[in-house]
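new request in #modeling-help
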Amino acid sequence: MFESDFERNLFALRREKLNQISALGQQTYPNQYTATHTIPEIWAKYRETTAEELEAHRIQVSVAGRIMAIRGQGKAGFAHLQQNGERLQIYVRKDDVGEENFLLYKLLDLGDHIGVTGYLFRTRTGELTIHVQTITFLAKAMLALPEKYHGISDIELRYRQRYVDLFTNSTLNEGGPDEIRVRDVFIKRAKLLKAIRNFFDTRGYIEVETPMMQPIAGGAAARPFVTHHNTLDMDLYLRIAPELYLKRLVVGGFDRVYEINRNFRNEGISTQHNPEFTMLEFYQAYANYHDLMDLTEEIIKQVAQEVNGTTITHFNGHEIDLGKWRRFSMREAIIEFWPESAGAKPAIEDFNSEATAAALVERLRAARIHIEYKPGEPLGKTIATIFEAVAEDHLIQPTIIYDFPLAVSPLSKQKPDEPDWVERFEFYIAGFELGNAFSELNDPEEQRKRFEDQLKQRQGGDEEAHQMDEDYVRALAYGLPPTGGEGIGIDRLTMILTGARSIRDVILFPLLRPHHTPEE
RNA sequence: GAGCUCGUAGCUCAGCUGGUAGAGCAACGCCCUUUUAAGGCGUGGGUCCUGGGUUCGAAUCCCAGCGGGCUCACCA
């Protein structure tokens, strides 16, 4: 627990102060405190009240909070109490609180929790302040708070000791139009979740919870985490997606379902990837991917309005309007964003054969654009890779990319007129993918074939290829109505709405390697 | 997993081409009854991330490791 002798000594010293506080007749760890207001309530109610009004009608209040600043003045003193992210000044005079309470005040440290009663006034400089009459001790900070002006700026410390980060409430993107405090990031995240639930609840969707531990990790292409159930003596996978269970529910007659929950993928970590992340998935019977495109724009617009009061957001130096959307087919996007350095733009026919697609790869490589390509891989996979290499960085403003190759979409329905392409889209904001949606494949025989193809790729060494899920095929065999389904990354959407540039800034306790203190 | 980069007091940071570690905040003591990054006087606080190496001498240079950040890869 202790970082140093300094901390150990400080702890002992505070322990001694607790004894003295106890000797003053205060409980050292009392069980409750009854306040008349929270600090935000005081501000909401009396922000505009003048000094004269406060003097004329003495307003008695009691509030509780954590001491975040304290200034002694001999036989008086000022302190700032913080509660729910807001601070209110208190003024303590020996004359007014009495000998014992003033001794208590002298024993207080930065970080301590106290309750005070008193009346509101304005100081010489006009600051709304409580003129304290009694102090009640509530809890002690046994460790030193971070630097009072800068707070904690060490990113590692912020993530490891989020509890400190939150009450010091340090700033992200300082000085920019996207400046935001840590606490507000997580308040917005909560609002976002509420807005999404509101969106779906009012449209007749029901919220469900499906297994997080699954015997077959399906519904996405990713390496799973493995765990073990002792009594059943079976390995289970932490889910990589809820998809296949949610579609079983549509078979079961829940025409509109959604789930907001964690997915786990045993993959790399980056500013856009955390091993556990929160995903919204929703399914709507009788809808196709066109319906979902319209719905997607509506969701994002409405959520932005509810969370930020505007569809304008700032991310990494870009102003983004979440109310204005573009749509390209994947092939159109490749042509649209084809780099000049790689010569003339491709023609739409170039996507029709492996040879012409491979030629595009060669042109990109000649232009020193890194692109993964294995000769003999399916044409659709090559096209998807080209899209990612060429277009993704340009998709700063909200953009829907539709019509994906069948080869990379084992669960999507083919386009009636182009069987090598499926009714699938992804949407991008700020240069990264936020969501993925498609008209769900509901033909059990076709689904079985797709799984078998995936199995072949798996045997060929692709660890992320889908496994066979017999029960899911059986569910489809009972009849899945035409259905549209979509997944939206909640962490990433939070990033877009808060301007946080790292996914770790929107996850309260992001995964870090264990850190060993000298004592361990 | 790879490349680059950072790691000095509880916190925020300085410390030059190598000469044996500093400031502010916080802490401790004293003074101060409208202050607010309060102020004044004084005091204590260091495994300079860890382990090797080079050197008369290493926070500083070199190597390895640990942890963080960024970029790339994988992926959403």
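bot summary: The first strand of chain A starts at residue 60 and ends at 72.
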